[in-house]
Amino acid sequence: MGRNKNKKMWNRKRKLESAEERSNQDRKPYVTVPPSNPKMEAYYAAVGLHSLRREGSDFVPCVDDIEKEQERNSFITCLRTTLPASFRIGQNLEPEFRQKLKRDIDIFVGTEIEIEIDQDGNAVCKPRLGMDSKDATEDGTATGTAEEEAKDTKSDQIIGPSEPVKIKKLAPAKPIPYIPDAYQLSVDKKTIRRNPLLQEFHEWLKVQTDSGFITRQETVSMIPPVVL
């Protein structure tokens, strides 16, 4: 019986290994899908959204199809622009602790930072400091927030040393004037997650968010609570 049991376990192990090999062979390389929605674009074109252009503080009719196409391209470019990361400090905190969080923000992102970008303006992603195989579980899946970050990594473009890069200066985090204790950064959340220079700030941001002291939220989504 001992031999039969060992044989069954061996056969099961071989089946699992074979299934994993087939899965790796069938796996296709990740292809970034361009953000577009033809039906939505056609709808807004049909209702005449691109028939007006802005001139100063007024909107005037486009004189020809060339101006309409320019307006359409501006509209699509705006929709495809990645929103900058923003967050706000909880208003239920003690004033002293709130001031401490503000001092931390000033230390991390209160000054100008230089990062590397590629020819398309995307931040160059490099291995995070201290990252190794221990950051994932034995079956290869990430845990907790690492799973979400691993998902975003697929769409990040990793630039090799042979490809040209440029240096981009990031403006300091700026307070949002119409929202108390709220800040907007000059980079998106993927850049914060993947750029080594922002790693310490990213870890601080995760700790404060998990503790309930800070809420990460798009700037436009912060307006309704303030108005209501």
Features:
43% helix, 228 residues, 8 helices, 8 strands, alpha+beta
**DSSP helix count?**
8
Helix content: 40-55%
Largest sheet: 4 strands, antiparallel
Strand content: 5-15%
Specify the structural class: alpha+beta
Distance between the termini: 73 Å
Task: Give the number of DSSP strands.
Answer: 8
Low-pLDDT runs: 127-151, 153-162
- The string of secondary-structure elements, in order, is HHEEHEHEHEEEHHEH
Mean of all residue-level pLDDT scores:
77
Q: What topology emerges from the helices and strands here?
A:
Layout: H1 2-26, H2 38-46, E1 52-55, E2 58-61, H3 65-80, E3 86-89, H4 95-109, E4 113-117, H5 145-153, E5 166-170, E6 174-175, E7 182-184, H6 189-194, H7 199-210, E8 214-216, H8 223-227
Antiparallel strand pairs: 1-2, 3-7, 3-8, 4-5, 6-7
Question: How would you characterize this protein structure?
Answer:
By secondary structure, the chain is α+β, with helices and mostly antiparallel strands. The strands form three sheets. It has a four-stranded antiparallel sheet. Strands 1-2 form a two-stranded antiparallel sheet. A hairpin with a 6-residue loop joins strand 6 and strand 7. The termini are far apart.
